[in-house]
Amino acid sequence: MNSYVELVRRRLEDRTANLLGNLEELPEAQLRFTMRIFGDCVDEETARRMFSGYSEHLSEGELRNFAREFIPAYTEYAIAELEGKKKDGDRFEPPFLTQEEYQEMAVREKWARIADRLEQVSSLQLRRELARSAMLFRPYMISDPSFNEGVLEFSLYFDLLERLRPLTEERLREAAAAVSRGIARAVEAGATEEGERLLREIRQTAGSAAGLPADPETLLGPPMERYPRTAPPEYRLRELRNALASMSLKDLRLSALVHLDLLTAEETRRIVTPFFEKYPSFFEMPSRELRDLIVSVAESVEDRAITRFIERFGTGRMSMTCPVDYIVWKLMPEEERLAALRRDNERMDSAMMSRHLARILLSGNERDLSDAGKQIALLTDPEYIEGHGDLLKRLGGADGGERIKRLYDRVTILSVRMAGQRAEERETAYREVRETIAGAAESSAATTKGR
């Protein structure tokens, strides 16, 4: 019979061959997930070496090229670790477990072994297991081996790892001991109310160790968002230049419209006017000038995006000002969030506010506001063009734009509240936001027409 080491080595080699053979078919998110899975199974020194030059904000082609070199190197590492851990026999308790074995083992089985030999588990592995335990949201997860990889889809896992890093050895092992006791009781309780209660206690223990005063479930966020959430400027601009190089003239014009939509009137005069001094019309600019214009805007406004005006309520990534750390944002009291959003609003002018308000009016649901494709399509929609112009004329002209600022502030307050709601309540809240804008616009129209 083949030995355990031989069987696992063959499986690792077959997996590598399969991944490399299908690498061209893997989408961008799957490439990043592959690196997350393997990165979760290397020690910190090896990670610094293997992931040198890597970022989740690389282009898809760059990610694929990185994976082509990384996957075989990781497999060599995993096989060496396997052979080192099992050189004196097939033992399956700390410190003889490989990092892949930790990743493949169900929580109930793994923590029983950790509890027996807590002092022989590395600090890095304890941080990983504590971070995972903070994400035990349902009783079935305790017995599900895929849970360990599933948590890697969420940036919260990596936030927890970083927050656990400063813990002393004593505090780390104290938290791990408490979690191990909780998991043992949760295994006995099973899928019952008591089991749910015990899981909340486990999450509280692990979350508290990581400095989270709230249930981690409230901080989960969307799956497979890039981490870190904010791209380094050099990656963002490089990706933009690569994309622009292959765009047709028609697509370049649309991209230019997208970038111009992110500017205030003063920024437009400062950044864009020099380009229009050479050409009488936006549509007479050649491809080269359009590319230069787009890059000039992108360099000037840093990390802005067409959907950020609505996404900021849930993430803290502002439209005009520096982003707030995601977890810090989620833990902020509503009053502090509103204060940060108002500071962001202060950087906008009436023209930008009118564009945002028109987008809300023309988007039937909140999901459409976060759909970049739909928001880009509005740029050439006559209703949007007329709508935001009408809002600006009616509400933004008189009194230094005070009326539109008051309306925008009211919409900000309602949107902050909406971001804290779910399901039907959230849909109702979104309707209230739209009705508030529509009501203000109609009232202004009636006043203007003397009715």
Q: Which spans have pLDDT < 50 for at least 5 consecutive residues?
A: 446-451
Percent of residues in β-strands: under 5%
Radius of gyration: 26 Å
Net shape? globular
Mean pLDDT: 94
Percent in helix: 55-70%
How many structural domains can be distinguished in the coordinates?
4
Order of helices and strands: HHHHHHHHHHHHHHHHHHHHHHHH
Biggest sheet character: none
How many runs of DSSP E, i.e. beta strands? 0
Q: From the helix content, strand content and strand pairing, which structural class follows?
A: mainly alpha
Tally of separate helices: 24
Termini separation comes to: 92 Å
Give the SSE map.
Blueprint: H1 4-21, H2 28-39, H3 44-50, H4 60-85, H5 99-104, H6 107-116, H7 123-133, H8 147-150, H9 155-164, H10 169-189, H11 193-209, H12 233-245, H13 249-260, H14 265-276, H15 287-301, H16 308-315, H17 326-331, H18 334-346, H19 350-361, H20 366-369, H21 372-377, H22 382-395, H23 402-419, H24 423-448
Describe, in plain words, how this protein is organized in 3D.
The structure is a single chain. This protein is mainly α and 451 residues long. The chain has four domains: 4-85, no CATH class; 99-219, no CATH class; 229-304, no CATH class; 305-451, no CATH class. The chain is 67% helix and 0% strand. The chain has 24 helices and no strands. It has helices at residues 4-21, 28-39, 44-50, 60-85, 99-104, 107-116, 123-133, 147-150, 155-164, 169-189, 193-209, 233-245, 249-260, 265-276, 287-301, 308-315, 326-331, 334-346, 350-361, 366-369, 372-377, 382-395, 402-419, 423-448. Helix 7 (123-133) packs across helix 9 and helix 10 (169-189) packs antiparallel against helix 11. The termini are far apart.
